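User: Here's a chain of 302 residues. Predict its fold as tokens.
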Amino acid sequence: MKRYKFIIADVFTDTPFGGNQLAVFTDRRGLSTEIMQKLAREMNYSETTFILPPNSAGADFHIRIFTPAIEIPFAGHPIVGTGYVIGATGMIKAAEPPSILKLETGVGIISVQLQIENGAIGRVTMTQPNPVSRGAFDNYADIADALGISASDIESGLPVEAIYNGLTVLIVPVSSLKAIESIKVNLVKLERVAQAVGATTVLAFSQEVLNAASTVHCRVFAPGAGVMEDPATGSANGPLGYYLVKHRLVKPEPTTKIISEQGYEIFRPSTLYIEVDTSGDEITAVRVAGDVRIVGEGEMFV
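Assistant: Prediction complete.
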């Protein structure tokens, strides 16, 4: 029986026991895919990652990402959190100016920037694959029914839009904070809606917020991946930033800065910092950043 070390991190929070929990196995050599999936199910966080030596030239590490139900090619908080763990545990030498990590994932190599503050790892920023619209979902009645709200709670004049950046997220604009807080998901119906557009996740957002500094308040659900509600979702918030800029819900700048709050309804308050670069009418880059706190470590016996 071998021992495999893991670290628990809270991602997209500067306060322990907020944000999105992540288990990071720092060396998975010797573990089969089947065992990695069982370990992810045992940890039972929205995602668990496993760090491997890279397969591709130009990558520093290869990471594999598992929900309790399936392996997924790409996700936001696992990449941000794993990048932080790599730097904080000395797997690379982090030094000023900001260190750049290249992490090999199922959608290619993702660039992760580690901000260094007084010799310690600060905020972590990931550059995401550029989002691409996959079109609108016109059946407001079905999506509202799946979310347990009225069709009139979906913002009129804005599309319910599927956006792909390695995973597909269905973006649902909701008219008020009260409506978004009242969401009670029917998992079977929501999975049916998500499957109709090939989406892994569904993100509902409102421009009414709890914190004055925030731009949007959101909730994210991933029934097909075995995640009822996610506390902080980097992979979905990148497309949300794209959506907000594309539909002029925020004033476009060469670099538009957006603050997204998430996780409050499930007592895991999270803050995600989104940057969207534009050139004319073209969106040229999307980045998602956040703080991370390590809250525990341990070993699993396999």
